Amino acid sequence: MKPMTDDFFSIGVDLGGTNLRIASYSGGTDFLDTILLPTRLSEGRERVVRDMCEAIQALSSKDYGMRLAGVGVGAPGPLELPEGIVRNPPNLPGWDGFNLREAIEEALGMQIEIESDANLAALAEQKVGAGKSQNVESLCMLTLGTGVGSGLILQGHIWHGATGMGGESGHMIVQDEGGAPCGCGGFGCLEQYASAPAVLRMGREIMGDRAPSSSHELAVLARTDRDALRVFERVGHSLAIALTGLINTLNLPLYLIGGGVSEAWEYFAPAMFHELAVRSYVYRLTQPEVLQPEELVRHKTYICGAELGPRSGLLGACLLPFQMSNGSTFPEEILALTDRQSHGL
Description:
By secondary structure, the chain is α/β, with parallel strands linked by helices. The chain has helices at residues 45-60, 100-108, 117-128, 130-133, 191-194, 196-207, 215-221, 226-250, 265-279, 281-286, 312-319, 332-340, and strands at residues 8-15, 19-25, 33-38, 67-75, 79-80, 85-86, 113-116, 139-144, 148-154, 157-158, 254-258, 302-305. The protein has twelve helices and twelve strands. The strands form three sheets. The protein has a five-stranded mixed beta sheet, with helices on both faces. Strands 10-9-8-11-12 form a five-stranded mixed beta sheet, with helices on one face. It is globular, with a radius of gyration of 20 Å. It starts with 7 loop residues before the first strand and ends in a 5-residue tail after the last helix.
């Protein structure tokens, strides 16, 4: 792929179960242009691909005074790579076995880069977000949204595993006995105890008719309502169980938590840190004195909020075409650009 300089721009796509977000990009944490569309799942996957490709073509035809370096697409996992075949995505019914890469490339008449959306969110955080600001090359990111996405960056590289499905931490088992059924076919997955729908379900289980209709409203209520707070304490407890496995296995310096549910950090974090200190001996050995410092201390384990907010997946998709041809490293130009542009979100 083309190295990033002021002569090139990219186009990124974030395919979600509700919305399609498409952007043009030339560096930093801001976009040149964005297009937001509904994901018309009810009209079939071909319609969704057509909407996506029409938006890509609209942005690629704009006169930015730069050449197009490539197109990056983020899709919900599990995603079989490098083929780009979608495998039983919970939020894209009817897409199992769909070769998304082939469909997009055939419609556009050009090669694209494709990754799981969770990997791309982690990639963006490592390259232009928390990883850059803290000079961290390896991190794990959990995104608490409609589901629980997870991405692993090891020594600056996305960890794919053997088939592109590495890092599906949202389906780690956090409650074995009587665990809630998950869209993956399992029971007791983290996704059923830390996603936005899970928060609402647990709210109804604990609060009955008093439960609000959104996770945000539940978080607001947690300020004064003990039962609402119990919901987020359960989120924190579940995250700690998953993080215990990740920390004991990977021993990374940084674990990031993002997504809409992460806005309730003050309500779930105390239970999460308390349970971590009980469960993870690696965390106890590397627990920092200051949990959220301005600068990370070497040989300590940090769990922090993600920096880039909801744009991280789309930013990662835009960054993807600027990888070198071996797909593993980024040229210095792209990182230098982040210092010349605003980090405003």
